Amino acid sequence: MRKWRSAVVTAAWVGVGTAAGALGAWQLATSDSGGAAHSRPLDEAAVERALAATSASPPASSSRPASPSPSAAPSKTPPDRSTLRFTGGTATVECRDDGTVYLVSWSPADGFHIDDDVERGPGPVARLEAEPSDDDERDDLPYEIRCGEDGQPRARVVADADD
Predict the structure, then answer these.
(1) Rounded average pLDDT over 52-62
(2) Whole-angstrom Cα distance, residue 71 to residue 84?
(3) Which of 34, 82, 109, 121 would be 89's cystine partner, CB 3.0–4.6 Å?
């Protein structure tokens, strides 16, 4: 009786595992990735093309006409985003009207990774560190990112605080 019960339990587990695997494969095969799935990070030109395609598409229409509410606060325009390139990678940065900087996103260059200890802001300074992926002879590149008086972000390598 025990052998029979063990065989049934094993068959049930195998059946459930097979069904889960088949469902996952079917879901991946039928999902619409919209061209967003990549095995490698996008380069700068691909990011700009994707952003241009997104901003060029017309906004979704609503079934009701939008009526401005007198009690609604005036909308602020979002800060301009700039792409900042540096030796260890790139970052999308907002220089805000109050003079603060905010790291929206960042991506390492080939042969680097970005340390997890990122100070993205908003604040007077944002910080991140690009570290070589495979070469211990190259130095880590700790960066401070600030917004210049012209409203454009600037990155500079600073002394590594861990040394």
Answers:
(1) 55
(2) 39
(3) 109
